[in-house]
Design a protein that fits this description.
The protein is mainly alpha-helical. It folds into three domains: 6-36, no CATH class; 52-93, no CATH class; 101-169, no CATH class. The chain is built from seven helices and three strands, in the order αααβββαααα. It has a three-stranded antiparallel sheet with strand order 1-2-3, covered by helices on one side. A hairpin with a 2-residue loop joins strand 2 and strand 3. The protein is globular, with a radius of gyration of 19 Å. GO terms for molecular function: 6-phospho-beta-glucosidase activity; metal ion binding; oxidoreductase activity, acting on the CH-OH group of donors, NAD or NADP as acceptor. This is 6-phospho-beta-glucosidase. Keywords: Glycosidase, Hydrolase, Manganese, Metal-binding, NAD. It comes from Kluyvera cryocrescens.
């Protein structure tokens, strides 16, 4: 189990309450708990994106998309958060050029970790998954990375059939 802290416990409790409310098919109002957990404006942003795509309004919004050359010194298949023109065919990334140095180093490193984890998920490679977590600079220690992977696999086992044997052994 990962080290616990007050903030983690608060968020877990809020999310448990939210999931309980979301299971009610008669729920029509936005639960107040959303404001307490942070990200209160994400629902508004999501609705704006849906509206813009549906109306093909060509508005510019910031979303996560396949890079496709929007950031020229990152791989085309990397996921990036950039300004996009919203069309009925989805968001069209606006080319922003290169990430300046020294920011490029950390961003490239994070994209490498993301690619490692995606590859591990697509192949069921447990060791590659562990490596993707423990070499990530946002992970506090090797042990924390291993525990995070175990906790994630156990919590999501029904969605991870490629890791079924690994999960059984945990």
């Amino acid at each position: 189990m990962l080290p616990s802290c007050r903030a983690v416990e608060i968020v877990k409790n809020i999310e448990a309450e939210l999931f309980k409310k979301y299971s009610d098919p008669t729920l029509q109002d936005k639960p107040k708990e959303l404001e307490a957990r942070g990200g209160a404006l994400y629902s508004t942003a999501a609705l704006n994106v849906i509206r813009a795509i549906y109306l093909d309004d060509k508005s510019i919004q910031t979303v996560n998309v396949r890079n496709g050359g929007a950031i020229t010194n990152l791989p085309a298949d990397a996921v990036v958060e950039v300004n996009c023109v919203m069309t009925r065919n989805g968001p069209m990334p606006i080319c922003t050029g290169e990430i300046p140095s020294p920011a490029k180093g950390i961003v490239s490193m994070m994209k490498d970790y993301e690619a490692q984890i995606v590859k591990a998920a697509a192949t069921g490679d447990y060791q590659a998954l562990i490596a993707g977590f423990i070499f990530n600079p946002l992970c506090s220690s090797d042990n924390a990375g291993v525990e995070l992977v175990k906790e994630m696999l156990l919590a999501n086992k029904k969605y991870l059939p490629l890791f079924a044997k690994t999960i059984e052994a945990l």
